[in-house]
Amino acid sequence: MADCIFCKIANKEIPSSVVYEDEQVIAFKDLEPQAPVHVLVIPKRHIESVAALTADDKALAGHILCEVIPQIAKEQNLDKKGFRVVANTRDEGGQTVKHLHFHVLGGRSMQWPPG
């Protein structure tokens, strides 16, 4: 999508602090971190949200959740103490950018409920 800020980041039209990248995914530091470590993991292909994932996206979702996020957690020294993964979905779920993204948060104790 031409006006999607995350598509622009994925296409390198907007600079970001990249911590991971491969052919399908890019991960970068959040500009307004909510924890000492706050990384956003996005598919390079525009998908609106978790609710927009289809059966054709199983491999991509598995790659993000089973490979990319654990690798980022390890590289950011979150794998031993713990971390939180959040995917806000649609307006009432708190999604502000309409491009699928996972927040990886850590480096402090997380509280429940999250808010």
Strand percentage lies at: 15-25%
User: How many helical stretches?
Assistant: 2
> Runs with pLDDT <50, length 5+?
none
Q: Please identify the structural class as seen in this structure.
A: alpha+beta
- The residue fraction in helices comes out at 10-25%
Describe this structure as you would to a colleague:
With 115 residues, the chain is α+β, with helices and mostly antiparallel strands. The protein is built from two helices and five strands. The chain has helices spanning 5-10, 58-75; strands spanning 18-21, 25-29, 37-43, 83-86, 102-106. The chain has a five-stranded antiparallel sheet with strand order 1-2-3-5-4, with helices on one face. Strand 2 and strand 3 form a beta hairpin. The longest helix is centred in the middle third of the chain and has 18 residues, at 58-75. It is globular. The model has no long low-confidence stretch (mean pLDDT 96).
Helix-strand blueprint:
Elements: H1 5-10, E1 18-21, E2 25-29, E3 37-43, H2 58-75, E4 83-86, E5 102-106
Antiparallel strand pairs: 1-2, 2-3, 3-5, 4-5
Tell me briefly what this model is.
The protein is built from two helices and five strands; from the N terminus they run αβββαββ.
Defining key terms:
about 20% helix, about 120 residues, alpha+beta, single chain, 5 strands
